[in-house]
Here is the input.
Amino acid sequence: MTLRFTTTATDGAARCGLVETPRGRFTTPCFMPVGTRGSVKGLSSADLEALGVEVTLANAYHLMLRPGAEVVAGMGGIHRFTAWSGHVLTDSGGYQVLSLAARVDDDGVTFRSTYDGSTHRLTPERAVAVQGLLGADIQMALDVCPPLSSPPGLLRQAVERTVAWGVRARDAHRREGREGQALFGIVQGGIDERLRAESARRTVELDLSGYAIGGLSVGESRSEMLAALAPTVAELPGDRPRYLMGVGDPVGLAEAVALGADMFDCVLPTRLARHGTALTAAGPLRLRNATFAQDAEPIDPTCPCDVCGRWSRAYLRHQLVVGEASARRLITMHNLAWILALVARIRAAVRAGTLTALRAELANRWAHLPAASQ
Here is the structure.
């Protein structure tokens, strides 16, 4: 078995599900914290386990450069290397490569390392091999992610190349006999709704373990993102996971689930934490504000996480102001606990048929927060 998806509840197009892999199982909708270089910044694998994280995301681009995919493989794969027993999904690195002005042709991409400037070549086949060495449970096919402002011709070229690369990734994946490692294809098309639907149909024809929606949450408005997402999800099969890449703001999560998306990743909760902003039921809390200098309340009185159960806003603000790294770590733990609890609420709302009410609640408190970026 590579991967099996079972729907366990629905509310309109929204659904809860269970993903089963050779490693075990995880529930959807799910949020995957981003551990770009093999760890979520400031946290350990033990912290993630304590938070109840089921899936983490790592980036093949960064790991292939440092420490090297072969090094990770020699250490027993990414799970043993990072001492993490949960699931790991690896992004192919296409987004990072293309954001660094790589040279793209029909065969692949040539880019310079962000670490030392050395030149590297990444093809669909090489991306499969690298992620195979890393040993992820789910790997992504190499794709072309065009900038938001791309003209129609460039969007069309990105779709054509992404589909062609998906075929090559699938064939390489099958040749290498990676039965225990799922491969997801990626849908592109910018915010062009017709092109999105076409890309989704053609990607589904590859008959892969799951399908991701890429090229969104790259600067477009939330309404534009959702308008492009709806026709995309409508073309994806009901028996495979649907992964919306790069979205993690509360409103975006709930609205995307309402359209039928299952899996999400985003740096938003951890990035906000490192800048001193906490997620709360009342909205974002900027803890550096002098208002909290003598505030004995926890970050969020409604949050049951260990951070809220032990430390005050005043203490965390003090730690931020004097530059203590522990503050960023503690707020990161809270933010992840909060977003995971929100996704659990979304799952419960789907099961109860009350997702519309939860969406309205979140929109009232979080509409001003921009849609998250990759």
Remarks:
- Residues 273-366 form one domain.
